[in-house]
Amino acid sequence: MNTLHRIKVLGRDLQVRSTADSETVRNVELFVNEKLAEVADSVKMGDTQVVAILALMNIAEEYLTLVKAAEASSMSSCDRIQRLIKRIDTDIE
């Protein structure tokens, strides 16, 4: 069920609907604001659109890195499982 939550991002009060609980929405809000603050500190100009775009790019890069690592880990696990199955099959014969 979607619940209405109030958050504040880039100084703007927003209402968002989410199936996540209040704590999760709050953690997302904090994460986004931290990323925006990091970028704002490193960008000389105060254009909020540029700050938002750069923060999105940083978040996307981190996300894609994690996805790639998870896929590699999953493939590694699959390889180990296949080797174990072969050992079991060999021992049964």
Automatic annotation (TrEMBL):
InterPro entries: Bac_CellDiv_Activator, Cell_div_ZapA-like, Cell_div_ZapA-like_sf
N-terminal signal peptide: none
BP GO terms, sorted: cell division
Organism domain of life: Bacteria
A family per Pfam: ZapA
Keyword terms: Cell cycle, Cell division
Gene3D superfamilies: 6.10.250.790
Protein name per its UniProtKB record: Cell division protein ZapA
Lineage: Bacteria, Pseudomonadati, Thermodesulfobacteriota, Desulfuromonadia, Geobacterales
